[in-house]
Design a protein that fits this description.
The complex is a heterodimer of chains A (342) and B (177). With 342 residues, chain A is mainly alpha-helical. In chain A, 66% of the residues lie in helices and 2% in strands. In chain A, α2 crosses α10 and α8 packs antiparallel against α10. Classes of the chains: A mainly alpha (342), B mainly alpha (177).
Chain lengths: 342, 177
């Protein structure tokens, strides 16, 4: 067997494995962090310190009865969770998560860490994540339930509104790096200013980073922007009528989307796998994981400390504050580049 | 060889899905099939070494415009086209629609013939410009858009702006009543 091909396969599988497990780990982390913030233990009984809780959850969901409402659209009801989770997995394919590796000298030519090295990676990620909304909208429509429908409608309106700010924030970074490839964006951030400040775009684009993160939270339907599933108003929103594995796919897609969002933020703003010490030994991807982990922790932190917005506030914030701020940021970045490069 | 197979696969999906779009009675299914057709088209663009155009296709058409379609269909909660009470013929078979459709089909045939006649010209033009991947790169698309076609580009943006202002005006008038 071709060793090079095998190595590429191993890299792809590693990405898939990480994503599948990211959702399990995040569920547990979410409940543990929530417990900590609310001064209680969180899950504690299954396994040491409740570490096996996600496993128990998955087993429980697998053995639950699968229900489908009588008036539901048979095809779209089945298709919706599949679209959600497929889009979530596929988006990560264009995200690089490390430099190159020879697997400690096993290979002649090094393999790039990342499923596919696309030269328009930023657009690919953006395009595929924007496909994910169909899963939610179709789930809401096909369930034939008013709560689901409202959840689906809110989700589509919300995602259209925040995608604009999100894409505009991305455009500023693309202009700075002069490339749509995430790998070149990361490589443009190697090195240090004045010998100790890392050349991260976070320091050039602080506003862009904030806009990206806020829009990212809204895009992944997380609190404080979790209107598609606002439980006080909509029972459970778009996934009200789902049960068993079909239900499980929605939160899984959400957690994978969170991971992708954090990974892209790391690549765009936090210098990707660049960091002190570890890169020398070809372990840059550890830095990547650490940075992604920090962003994900912030995600969970925000969810359990900030109350949910009101729906009209969400729309106003998106259109009247976030989007204009993103456009101003874009224009300022363009002026900056013209002034210093001309 | 795999390239050719993939081309036929995506071409079949694109044509099949497009044909099914107009064959569906349920607008929801039509929208999903149209998205599938756009996806297959974007795959064809990738095969033509134009990843930027492919992704723009997905972002703009499949991502933004179709979400809007879906939103409208859901909001109006358009039912299946059950014409049981008055007219059992498929909407496409009604005389007025059929005539209009025939007219459009005729135009399409003319356009296709025109395009096929010009295939060699287009190939020659591409060959003269050099690398295909270079022509369809973001940089060249952007440059052409803001130099040669800047008038069309700006005119389009004004057109969209007019539509937006119109929508706001209509919505505001509704509120006053």
């Amino acid at each position: 067997m071709d060793l090079q091909l095998l190595a590429q396969f191993v890299v792809c599988f590693a990405a898939f494995f990480m994503l599948v497990n990211a959702s399990a780990v995040l569920v547990l982390a979410e409940r543990k962090v929530m417990g900590f913030m609310q001064q209680r233990y969180g899950p504690y009984l299954v396994g040491p310190h409740g570490l096996l809780q996600p496993l128990a959850d998955i087993l429980k969901l697998l053995f639950k009865e699968e229900l489908r409402p009588k008036g539901a659209d048979k095809w779209l009801f089945t298709l919706a969770p599949i679209i959600s989770v497929t889009a979530a997995f596929a988006a990560f394919a264009a995200v690089p998560w490390g430099a190159e590796t020879t697997f400690f000298g096993l290979l002649d030519t090094p393999v790039k860490l990342g499923v596919a090295d696309v030269n328009v990676a930023v657009l690919v990620v953006f395009a595929i994540t924007s496909m994910g909304v169909y899963g939610i909208v179709l789930a809401g429509w096909s369930s034939n339930s008013k709560y689901s429908l409202l959840g689906g409608l809110r989700s589509s309106a919300q995602m259209i509104s925040y995608e604009l700010a999100y894409a505009t924030a991305l455009a500023s970074v693309i202009m700075l790096a002069g490339s749509l490839s995430l790998r070149s964006v990361v490589d443009a951030q190697a090195g240090y200013w004045l010998g100790f400040i890392p050349r991260w775009y976070l320091f050039l684009q602080p506003l862009g980073f904030i806009i990206y993160v806020i829009a990212g939270v809204a895009e992944t339907n997380r609190a404080p922007f979790d209107f598609p599933e606002a439980e006080q108003e909509l029972v459970a929103g778009y996934n009200t009528e789902y049960s068993s594995v079909r239900f499980a796919l929605f939160p899984q897609a959400e957690y994978i989307n969170m991971t992708t969002m954090a990974a892209v933020a790391t690549d765009l703003y936090l210098g990707g796998w660049h960091g002190p010490f570890l890169e020398r030994y070809g372990l840059g991807w550890v830095w990547f994981l650490v940075k992604v982990g920090l962003i994900l922790f912030a995600y969970i932190w925000v969810r359990w400390t900030v109350p949910r917005y009101r729906y009209d506030q969400l729309m106003q914030f998106g259109w009247k504050w976030l989007f204009p701020a993103a456009v101003l940021n874009l224009i300022a970045t363009a002026a900056f580049i013209l002034y210093f490069n001309a | 060889m795999p390239d050719t197979l993939l081309f036929y696969l995506f071409a079949t999906v694109a044509i099949g899905a497009s044909a099914l779009v107009i064959g569906q009675r349920n607008p929801m299914y039509s929208i999903m099939l149209l998205i599938a057709s756009f996806g297959a088209l974007s795959a064809l663009y990738i095969q033509l070494d134009a990843p930027f155009v492919a992704m723009a296709q997905v972002v703009v058409y499949a991502g933004a415009i179709m979400v809007l379609f879906l939103f409208v269909v859901m909001l109006l909660n358009a039912p299946q086209e059950d014409a049981a009470e008055w007219d059992r013929t498929h909407p496409l078979r009604r005389p007025g629609v059929a005539r209009f459709g025939a007219l459009l089909a005729g135009l399409l045939i003319v356009e296709l013939v025109w395009a096929f006649v010009r295939v060699n010209d287009a190939n020659a033009a591409v060959a003269a410009r050099g690398d295909v991947a270079e022509i369809s790169s973001v940089r060249s698309v952007g440059r052409v858009l803001f130099t040669d076609y800047v008038f069309a580009f700006e005119a389009t943006s004004i057109l969209i702006l007019v539509a937006m202002v119109g929508a706001v005006v209509l919505a505001a008038r509704e509120e006053k009543r």
